[in-house]
Amino acid sequence: MPFDFNFKFLSETMMTVAIIVLAYSIKKIILKVMHQRIADSTSYYKLKRVVTYIIFIVSAILIGGIWLKFGQSFSTYFGLISAGLAVALKDLVINMAAWIFIVIKRPFTVGDRIEIDGVRGDVIDQRLFQFSMMEIGNWIQEDQSTGRIIHVPNAKIFTESLANYTIGFEYIWNEIPVLLTFESDWQRAKGKLLSIAEEHTLYLHEEVERKVKQASKKYLILYKNLTPIVYTDVKESGIQLTIRYLCAPQRRRSSKEIMWEDILKYIQSTEDINLAYPTIRVASDKG
């Protein structure tokens, strides 16, 4: 009986290894052919993911079928091994469970801009144990890419807050504070800043309204005012006018640059409107 058990165990192990090697070889061949025939990187990436998942699932089913036929004697043996592996490979198991959650619930997909565990970036890859992001921000201002690729364990989605810039409502609110001197004609400046903001964002109005209606079917999003607005505030050095407007996450810096250029041209051409900066005023009593 022990000899028979050992022979069966060895036989099933060899079949399992053969399936893994065969699956790996088939995957390499298919991907090589796809790489030669598909020029578009996005299409190649998506098909690559599909092929990988299909081969993994088929291999898992075949291997599972082999070991299930092994009999009751193996079940006890396999149970003990599984318990030990579950403890030793706890992190890997959690990452696999998180991968299943990501695939089914789709809190983010490739191409989304997200923030998790203090790291922001565009998702560029999803794998069984981790996903990868092209980092933005950090030492670079205005959410621009740093050029670094950050690999994040899938399990982070169970323990850290996840912010998705893209899914659901695909736009974010951005603000541009403009500080003017107390002597400036702030009311006229406020009207001009609003017209500048509208000039560069009104083309988004219909698109944004459509996206809000779509998102409201899944999330409780109740935005009423989607057009640009300018808020007035008083600071120590002057009157602050803050432009608030919607933009795509990837266009935050470029939209801000375009508006600032128009703002600076307007202020340069107007004598009674000036930018403020920290100043100290001294009053003297000569009498």
In short:
The protein is α+β, with helices and mostly antiparallel strands. It has 8 helices and 8 strands; from the N terminus they run H-H-H-H-E-E-E-E-H-E-E-H-H-E-E-H.
Task: Please state the average pLDDT score.
Answer: 82
Q: Give the low-pLDDT segments.
A: none
**Can you tell me the CATH class of the largest domain?**
Alpha Beta
The first-to-last residue Cα distance is 116 Å
Q: Which secondary-structure class do the elements indicate?
A: alpha+beta
Number of helices: 8
Whole-number count of domains: 3
Major β-sheet annotation: 5 strands, antiparallel
CATH topology of the largest domain: Alpha-Beta Plaits
Beta strand %: 15-25%
Please give a structural write-up:
With 287 residues, this protein is of the alpha+beta class. It has 3 domains: 2-88; 113-164; 172-268, Alpha-Beta Plaits. It is 51% helix and 20% strand. It is built from 8 helices and 8 strands. A 5-stranded antiparallel beta sheet has the order 4-3-2-1-5, with no helix packed on it. A 3-stranded antiparallel beta sheet has the order 6-8-7, with helices on one face. Strand 3 and strand 4 form a beta hairpin. Helix 1 (2-37) runs antiparallel to helix 2 (41-68) and helix 6 (186-201) packs antiparallel against helix 8. The mean pLDDT is 82.
Compile the SSE list and pairings:
Elements: H1 2-37, H2 41-68, H3 72-88, H4 90-105, E1 113-116, E2 119-126, E3 130-136, E4 145-153, H5 156-159, E5 162-164, E6 172-180, H6 186-201, H7 205-216, E7 229-235, E8 238-247, H8 252-268
Antiparallel strand pairs: 1-2, 1-5, 2-3, 3-4, 6-8, 7-8
